Amino acid sequence: MADGKNFIHEIIDEEIKEGGRCYGQKVHTRFPPEPNGYLHIGHAKALEIDFGTAELYGGMCNLRMDDTNPTKEDEEYVDAIKEDIKWLGHDWEDRFYYASDYFDKMYEYAVELIKKGLAYVCELTPEQMKEMRGDTKTPATSPYRDRPIEESLDLFERMKNGEFEDGKMTLRAKIDLASGNFNMRDPVIYRINRLPHHRQGTKWVIYPMYDFAHPLEDAIEGITHSLCSLEFESHRPLYDWVVNNTSVEVKPRQIEFARLGITHTVLSKRKLRNLIESGYVDGWDDPRMPTLCGLRRRGYTPEAIREFHTRNGVAKINSVVDFAFLEYCLREDLNKKAKRAMAVLHPVKLIIDNYPEDKTESFTVENNPENPEDGTREVTFSRELWIDAEDFMEEPAKKYFRLYPGNEVRLKSAYIIKCTGCDKDDNGNVTAVHCTFDEESRGGNPADGRKIKATIHWVNAADCLDAEIRLYDRLFTTEQPDLADCNYLDFINPDSLTVIKDAKVEASLGLAQPSDRFQFLRVGYFCCDSKDSTEDHLVFNRAVSLKDSYRPE
Ligand code: ATP
Ligand code: MG
Prior knowledge:
This protein is α/β, with parallel strands linked by helices. The protein has 3 domains: about 5-255, HUPs (Rossmann fold, 3-Layer(aba) Sandwich), CATH 3.40.50; about 270-340 and about 465-545, CATH 2.40.240.10; about 345-455, CATH 2.40.240.10. It is built from 12 helices and 27 strands. The protein has helices spanning about 5-15, 40-55, 75-90, 105-115, 125-130, 150-160, 210-220, 235-245, 270-275, 290-300, 300-310, 325-335, and strands at about 30, 60-65, 95-100, 120, 170-175, 190, 205-210, 225-230, 255, 260, 320, 340, 345, 345-350, 360-365, 375-380, 385-390, 410, 415-425, 430-440, 455, 460, 465-470, 495-505, 515-520, 525-530, 540-545. Strands 12-25-26-27-23-24-13 form a 7-stranded mixed beta sheet, covered by helices on one side. The chain starts with 6 loop residues before the first helix and ends in an 8-residue tail after the last strand. Adenosine-5'-triphosphate (ATP) binds near residues 33, 42 and 267.
């Protein structure tokens, strides 16, 4: 929308008007990740909506670990989640919470429901409950529904005290066994589970279910708008039921938005974990992963990711966005920010036969023509250079304008050279290309103004550095690897990583720091690997290629 407002903002605009539900109140949202994995590009959308909405209205956004589930949750994830959110540029200030800190209060609210006759202890096993849940024409049943309040109170307390084994009993909200919305057919709100909790240890053996816990967490924190993805739409009546039937002071409102889907990847944490555990990728921060730490290591900027979400907008219909659009946003950002450098991925020697053997000169080149503030650097030049093997053909193909015997090209920022031939080994492989240079063309322009069709990049053999280059490609060969009727593992791209061990890069890249990003002229955008690159062993990851046919509408 032109004014940057989406349908959520339109709802809020109405609610903060005089007489509206939130008149005179600060808009208060929250981002509630479950600390059972790393954040991914889909979470970044939710972050943009949660923090962005609060910011737009001068309100607040809490960061809350939704850790009501005792399994698989871990401090490692909590720290990583915080780091990723900060990296994106969102700030929860001092409003960091754990849902598990509300277990005592939640227990009290459950007791309140029992006392009001709105919850009961049920002894059906999960299988029996499934059998008795009815169908669209038949209501569900439970023989425990009319159990006296006193009995439920007693049993619930004993559930809490650990008197019953896992799965033996549940606490169910007493709502409507005939509801067309199955979430309202007396949903389970507490279950027994003896798995230890990452923060509460073994204090609790009963745990609240998401649909009961979440609205209470929101209400306890004074959230005005609980923004979540579309799959919770049919849970909203239960959300409202919980806030309306307990004595919570704040009655938050849930509003759903469409999840982000993106081509050529998967976004479920379970599937991402499986890719790691099965060895398809190296970890959560593998640069092929759609995780924020993976994208960061790959070379993505927070600005590119946020711009991607802003341009996609917020809708109520799920859609799948082309991965190429994310790459487009990165390219646009890096074009402005990344310093230029020269790197030769497939080196072949270039010998300038008429250049003095003991001479070295240097050229002053711009670091980024898009941003003069980035300044200039010196690039050295001498008789022997490295150029890319692809920039020479002994017998040129049609429309090939680069080096071939008799042809002239420009060495970027240096001189015009003319190819005179090449050396070959016994197998016919080109081992060196020979040329002469035009002394009058210093800086790259011929004195007589003759037309030179191609410009190629190079590095000085005398002082260039060796580097490892990691070329990353799509993780999956198909657009939607996680469609319901297929197995995403069948579509893993076997060529998602190509490692070049012996690339040559210009000397200035010896100063590259982990996470620095560059445009390697004519090659693409690269990022100095934050984990593996050292002064003695430079490693650069391809963030994105230079060009793509993709253009946003
Ligand atoms: P998964 O299904 O992969 O485990 P999740 O949705 O359970 O993901 P949470 O940690 O619960 O992961 O997510 C935190 C918040 O991020 C939730 O509000 C959720 O709606 C939102 N979210 C997760 N994935 C997406 C997505 N692809 N697009 C938009 N929002 C998302
Ligand atoms: Mg979840």
